[in-house]
Amino acid sequence: MKTAGAALSIAVAVLMTALSGPALALTFREPAKGSSERAAIMDSLRPAVEAEMRGPVEFVVTTIRVTPNWAFVQVEPQRPGGGVIDPEKTGFAGDTDMMDGLTVYALMGFQAGRWNLIDHMVGPTDVGYAGWQQRYGIPAALLGLE
Questions:
Q1: Distance, CA of 121 to chain centre
Q2: pLDDT tens-digit readout, 25-41
Q3: CA–CA gap between residue 76 and residue 73 (Å, rounded)
Q4: Which residues are paired to 109 by β-bridges?
Q5: Structure confidence by residue, pLDDT tens digits, 44-99
Q6: For residue 143, which of 68, 39, 34, 65 has the smallest C-alpha distance?
Q7: How far is C-alpha 133 from the geometric centre of its chain's CA atoms?
Q8: Looking at residue 40, what is its pLDDT?
Q9: Which residue ranges form the domains of the chain, and what is each CATH number?
Q10: What is the maximal distance between C-alpha atoms in the chain?
């Protein structure tokens, strides 16, 4: 009986070690440039950012983390073809001294077969998106806040 108990203890210890490591780590994917998934994620963000930037934009992606249900991105908006956006000619005119550039952070959810913009912010001077973890029930690792 002692042998069976010891074997069970060892099996439980091995299982707990396996489950406490990378097996529980949140895994992301980064959709490839030019992929339809990446385009769909960016297209869900584009209308809101174009309204704020007062014109067409394309994005330079700094960070993109995608799970089956969530996408988190950090992007730098620019005019098509790489043109610089003058912050004083955007919806942020007069407020740009209180911003850290035009960097956009966004959270999208995959619902009803498509990517939908859940929340975003432009030019925060702190980690303003940290509250999204609690507000939307997403893993901290998705936001890079592990």
A1: 12
A2: 678 999 999 999 999 99
A3: 10
A4: 70, 116
A5: 999 999 999 999 999 999 999 999 999 999 999 999 999 999 999 999 999 999 99
A6: 65
A7: 11
A8: 98
A9: 27-143 (3.10.450.630)
A10: 78
What is the model's pTM? 0.82
pLDDT at 1: 47
Helices (H), the chain: 2-20, 36-53, 132-136
The confidence score (pLDDT) of residue 68 equals 95
3-state secondary structure the chain: CHHHHHHHHHHHHHHHHHHHCHHHCCCCECCCCCCHHHHHHHHHHHHHHHHHHCCCCEEEEEEEEECCCEEEEEEEEEECCCECCCHHHCCCCCCHHHCCCCCEEEEEEEECCEEEEEEEEECCCCCHHHHHHHHHCCCHHHHCCC
pLDDT at 23 over 70: no
Distances in whole angstroms, Cα of residue 108 to Cα of each of 50, 80, 83, 92, 105: 17, 23, 26, 23, 10
Q: Give the separation between CA 83 and CA 106, rounded to whole angstroms.
A: 22
> Is it the case that residue 13 has pLDDT exceeding 80?
no
- Between the CA of residue 100 and those of 62, 82, 134, 138, what are the distances in Å? 15, 20, 24, 25
